[in-house]
Structures are given as C-alpha cells and as structure tokens.
Amino acid sequence: MALTLYNSLSHAKEPFRPLRPDAVGMYACGPTVWDFAHIGNARMVVVFDLLYRLLRHSFRTVTYVRNITDVDDKIIDAARRNGEAIDALTKRTADAFHAHMAALGALPPTIEPRATEHIGEMVAMIQALIAKGHAYEAQGHVLFAVQTDTHYGHLSRQTQEGILEGARVEVAPYKRDPADFVLWKPSTGDQPGWDSPWGRGRPGWHIECSAMAERYLGETFDIHGGGRDLIFPHHENEIAQSSCAHGGKPLARTWVHNGFITVRGEKMAKSVGNIVTVNDLLPRYDGETIRLTLLSAQYRQGLDWTDDAVEQAKKSLDRWYRAAGNARPAATVDATFLAALEDDLNTPEAFARLHGLADAALAGDASAAASLKASANLMGVLDKDADAWFRAVPVGTGKDQIEGLIAERTAAKKSKNFAEADRIRKLLLDQGIVLEDAANGTTWRRSS
RNA sequence: GGUCGGGUGGCGGAGUGGCUACGCAGAGGUCUGCAAAACCUCGUACACCGGUUCAAUUCCGGUCCCGACCUCCA
User: What ipTM was estimated for this complex?
Assistant: First the structure.
C-alpha cells in the first residue's frame, strides 16, 4: 500500500510519487507571529505533522520546511497597539508558538526559516521577475503583472474576470491590472524596512514563501500545503511568482489543503469573539487530547470544535492507554492502520482500527497492545506510560496522601466497614481521583 | 455573481452499487460489598424529487439547505 493524497491542483486523489525516490520535500505555510496560535493554526500544524511523520515512515529523507512570517502589517499594527517593540513581539509570539506546538506533539520542521532573514533572496527573485517582464515598479511598489502569466488562476480555478467581480478591496491606482499584487512596498520611517533597488521597503506577503521554498527545496518540490483559505490568493500568487521566475517550472507537484475549524457551529473570528487559542486550552486539556481532537475528522473536512468533541477524544485516549498499558511498542505499525492513514490521511478510519486493536489488547492479546502502541505512536499519540497518563497528579493532592487513604480504605474493607470505605472513595472522587478495585488490589487514576 | 466543499442514526464521524464502520451518549445484562473498568445484548441513518439498475445512502439529473474563498484570515 502506498500513500495517496488529494491534490488540490487536480481535484483528485493521486498516488504520491516523489521527484526523487528516497527524498521528499515539503513546504507548509507557517504562522504570522503577531498573536497566540489558535486551534485553526494548530490544526494545520498537526495535520502536516502527521503527514511529515507518515512520509518519514516511508522515505529515507524528508525535508519539511515551515516558515515563520515575522514581517507583516498585522505585526506592525499589533506592536503599535501593545506598545511593544516589533522584535520583542515576534520573539515572544514565536516562542509561545513553539511551546504550544510541542505540547500538541508536533515535531519541529526540518527547517524553519524566517522571512526577515531571507530578504536578500526575495529581492533577487523580484529582480528576476522584473528582468523577465513579469513585474514592474510603480510609485515605490513592485507589482506582479498577472496578465503575463497565462496559467494564473489555475489552482483556484478562477478566471481573472471572476476574481475581479468579487473584489472587495479598492484597486490601487498604480496597478496596471486590478488583479496585480504587491511584491515589494515602501516603508515609512517608523515601519520596518530594508534597502532595495526600489528604495527602503518591505516584501509583500506572498514572495517570502516563494523565495524560501526555492532556497531550501529548489525550484520544484513535492508537497506544498496550508489552510484551505490560502488557495486564493496566497498559493495562487506563490505559484505565479515561482513558476514565472523559474521559466515556467511548477512550484509544487502536490498541493494539500486542510479544512477549517468552526467553534460551536460558527466561524472562528475576532469579530464573533470565539477564537480558541492553544494557550486557552492547555490548562484544561492535555496537549495529546487536543491533538487527537484535531485529528478526529479527516483533514479536508470542516471540524466543529466543542467541549464534547474534546471529551470524546479524551475518552478514546483513556481507552487506548488502558488497553496498551505499559506495553513496549511493536517494531512495525499495524498494516490496516497504516493503510487508512496512507489513504489521504483517513484518521477516522485509522481510529477505528486502533479501537479494534484495543479490543484485542483488552482481551489479553499482548501483541495487539504492542501494535496499538506502535501505531498510535506514528500518529503522535499514546507515547506516555499509562501510569503517567492516568496519574498526572491533580492540583492540591499528593501521591502519598492518595496512597495513604487507599491503605485506610483497604483496611476498612477488610473489616467490612463499607461505610468508611465508601466515605474514602467519595472523598477522593471529590478531588478528582477514581479508585478501581481489582483482584490484585486497588489502583487510582485521575477522573478528568 | 464566480469557484470549491458539504448535507449520514440522539451526537461526532468514515465508507460503500447488495454484506455491523468506528466512537460517544442511551437501554438491558454479566461481574462487583458499592463502584470503576471490562465484557455481552439492543435500538434508531444515509436532505428532497426523479432517473439508471435485479439492487442506490453509494452512479446520473434536478431541487432545497449549509459552509469556505473571491488581494494579504490556517
């Protein structure tokens, strides 16, 4: 069984064949570091992390590039609002991003380039586009001339007329064509800027990804991805810039886009006031639980974020941890599970298989337990000891205290003082501790 | 208006031209001093209308809804 991915370019699932047999290059559009990552950002990271892990499972070398956008008008605005220096804001936000994504079990990408460290590459690419007649300078701006790219609109299946009909923004007067977009724009004295052949300025949004992808992955690479909303205009423009700079060569062969998250049925937006950040969730839920929730729907589908969805994910993890116990992961991943993931990352199907393995493991099949662990590990979950999972110490309760109460209760039970035994059970339950009596003694776990 | 995606049982969510997805919740049961966990059993589904077919939730056409994007939002 081999990996199949839905390619946004062809609108079909395709067998994945890398350009080079044993090395894969993948680029995903990373965060603009102006505020905490929300669960939408997190979904993209977790989905591409899963794809990264799956690729590493099958190919010797996988180069995963995920950028950090640290120059952007949203950053300038946020810094001004906060009364904070721009570099302080971007550092603080990038650090938080790293901590939050690590909590979700996302591996660091192979390379994480920052836009501000690649201005030279961007200027060079813009110069190449001007030299080839695909871009022009106007009033301190450099613009990409979409008319010069006959393939423009291919990814989003839009005609240039169609794009313009729905335009919501006033067209700048210096544009030759209303659909032209900015490659470089002038900066005022208080805005971040770099010297360039067109004066002091800063890059437009799209050029950084084209320039950094070229630098680290070459002119054409295997997979490019991001959230669905990036298809237009961001990815469309990246394709235009890169392929025009590279004599028509394609930018990426497979385009992967993840679906959006809604919160209790509504679009997540500042204006609705329902933004859920990873920072908000981590005190309430284990990062692993959040990760599993993000994977509970197939990545191209929408995902509605509700407390109930998170609770369900937690229950699945409880069950898998109970079934896997402290088994050592098997050397190989379960074939049925792998086949589900290789079918365009069908995580719900993969979950079903894990539940099946858990059934077998609970019935006493040790190899199923080992396989469950190895398989779930590939997905980036179930990598703790069961003890660590169930006995993370609740606030205000010490392990010694719990063990002491259990001993008291065991003594009470022995003398048939069930009222006292039940009193202790209740006492601990009120502190979030569930006791489980088994033939070989009493164990405890946290209840939530 | 253009482009794209979707409507599955109480809920979440896969998939398929005929055979139980899976999970959660619910009902009953086994076990248990009581619980928990585990196990067993049970129920309800494929938006609507046509068509193709021996057979459609699955294919085709139409209708109705919902969502995303249409110049910088993952």
Answer: 0.93
- pLDDT tens for each residue of A219-263: 999 999 999 989 989 999 999 999 999 999 999 999 999 999 999
Q: Residue A5 phi/psi, 5° resolution?
A: -130, 145
Question: What is the fold, at CATH topology level, of the domain defined by A262-390?
Answer: Four Helix Bundle (Hemerythrin (Met), subunit A) (1.20.120)
The whole-number Å distance from A368's CA to B22's C1' is: 18
Q: A4-258 maps to which CATH number?
A: 3.40.50.620
Can A4-258 and A262-390 be said to share one CATH topology? no
Nucleic chain B: which protein residues 418-447 of A have CB below 7 A from it?
A: 418, 421-422, 425, 434-438
Nearest to A206 by CA among A176, A172, A241: A241
Classify A109 as helix, strand or coil. coil
The nucleotide closest to A421 (CA, C1' atoms):
B34
Query: Is residue A73 a contact partner of residue A115, using CB atoms and an 8 Å limit?
Result: no
CA–CA dist A346, A298 (Å, integer): 6
CA–CA distance, A167 with A361 (Å, rounded to integer): 57
Q: Which chain A residues in 78-137 sit with Cβ < 7 A of strand B?
A: none
Determine whether the distance from the CB of A13 to the nearest atom of strand B is below 7 Å. no
Scanning the structure block, which residue is given the tokens 């309760």? A397
Average pLDDT on A409-427 reads 94
Burial group, residue A376, by CB count within 10 angstroms (0-12, 13-18, 19+): buried
Domain-wise residue ranges, chain A: 4-258, 262-390, 399-446
